């Protein structure tokens, strides 16, 4: 029996929710970076992402923290030291992103 699209609401799907957490140019890359190299400092993340503005990176990190995917740890020293790492929730999402990576490796054009 086919589903009726007339009554469907994409915003109510798990897919939509997941995309809302990782949407944008930098969030998936930030999560991937933390998956591979955590903990990561702000300047290290900025170098990894290359041409990202301070404000843009800061905003993306704040949103990921607010969504419970990353932890911001600030150390009381001079100069201030701040590190970012994944939460348990973030680690569970990385499993999904890891599958995207696998798919990309299997399907990217051969050189």
Topology, element by element:
Elements: H1 14-22, H2 27-37, E1 40-41, H3 42-49, H4 54-66, E2 70-75, E3 81-86, H5 88-107
Antiparallel strand pairs: 1-3, 2-3
Structure description:
- The structure is a single chain.
- The protein has helices at residues 14-22, 27-37, 42-49, 54-66, 88-107; strands at residues 40-41, 70-75, 81-86.
- It has a domain at 26-102: Winged helix-like DNA-binding domain superfamily/Winged helix DNA-binding domain (Arc Repressor Mutant, subunit A, Orthogonal Bundle).
- The mean pLDDT is 92.
- Helix 2 (27-37) packs across helix 5 (88-107).
- Strands 1-3-2 form a 3-stranded antiparallel sheet.
- It is built from 5 helices and 3 strands.
- Helices cover 55% and strands 13% of the residues.
- It is α+β, with helices and mostly antiparallel strands.
- Strand 2 (70-75) and strand 3 form a beta hairpin.
Q: What is the fold named in CATH at topology level of the domain at 26-102? A: Arc Repressor Mutant, subunit A
**What is the top-level CATH class of the domain at 26-102?**
Mainly Alpha
Based on secondary structure, the structural category is alpha+beta
**What radius of gyration results from the CA coordinates?**
17 Å
Residue windows where pLDDT falls under 50 for at least 5 positions: none
Q: What would the average pLDDT be, to the nearest integer?
A: 92
Strand line-up in the sheet with most strands: 1-3-2
Number of strands: 3
The best one-word shape is globular
């Amino acid at each position: 029996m086919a589903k009726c699209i007339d009554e469907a609401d994409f915003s109510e799907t798990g897919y939509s929710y997941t995309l809302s957490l990782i949407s944008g140019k930098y969030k998936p890359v930030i999560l991937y970076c933390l998956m591979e190299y955590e903990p990561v400092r702000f300047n290290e993340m900025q170098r990894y992402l290359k041409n990202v503005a301070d404000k843009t990176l800061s905003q993306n990190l704040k949103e990921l923290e607010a969504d419970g995917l990353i932890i911001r740890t600030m150390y009381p020293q001079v100069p201030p030291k701040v590190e970012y790492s994944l939460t348990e929730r973030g680690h569970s999402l990385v499993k999904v992103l890891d599958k995207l990576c696998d798919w990309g490796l299997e399907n990217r054009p051969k050189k």
